[in-house]
């Protein structure tokens, strides 16, 4: 049982370390493109969720701010 706790803590530490190194993830709504292209491909609008940046902050980063 104690082994499971240690493994869980190790995984949590790895996750937090990865968030520290790579704090951003692709925006889920626009798949990281930051915009929605019209069917013609000539016009687009910015993604409302990420503001056109195409990225979101990962969950742990939001928790620690
Ligand atoms: Zn977006």
What does this structure look like?
- The structure is a single chain.
- The protein has helices at residues 2-21, 59-63, and strands spanning 24-26, 35-37, 44-46, 55-57.
- It has 65 residues and is α+β, with helices and mostly antiparallel strands.
- The strands form 2 sheets. Strands 1-4 form a two-stranded antiparallel ribbon.
- 6% of the residues are buried.
- The protein binds zinc ion.
Give me the secondary-structure topology:
Layout: H1 2-21, E1 24-26, E2 35-37, E3 44-46, E4 55-57, H2 59-63
Antiparallel strand pairs: 1-4, 2-3
The structure holds zinc ion.
Spatial strand sequence of the major β-sheet: 1-4
Distance between the termini: 33 Å
The SSE string, one letter per element, is HEEEEH
Number of strands: 4
Q: Calculate Rg over CA atoms.
A: 17 Å
Largest pleated sheet: 2 strands, antiparallel
The number of helical segments is 2
Strand fraction = 15-25%
State the secondary-structure class.
alpha+beta
Shape: elongated
Ligands present: zinc ion
Oligomerization state? single chain
Level of helix content?
25-40%
Mean pLDDT rating:
94
Spans of 5+ residues with little confidence (pLDDT < 50)? none
The count of domains is 1
């Amino acid at each position: 049982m104690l082994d499971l706790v240690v493994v869980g803590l190790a995984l949590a530490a790895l996750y937090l370390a990865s968030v520290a190194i790579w704090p951003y993830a692709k925006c889920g709504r626009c798949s990281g493109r930051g915009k929605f292209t019209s069917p013609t491909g000539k016009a687009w609008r910015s993604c409302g969720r990420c503001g056109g940046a195409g990225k979101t902050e990962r969950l742990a980063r939001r928790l620690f701010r």
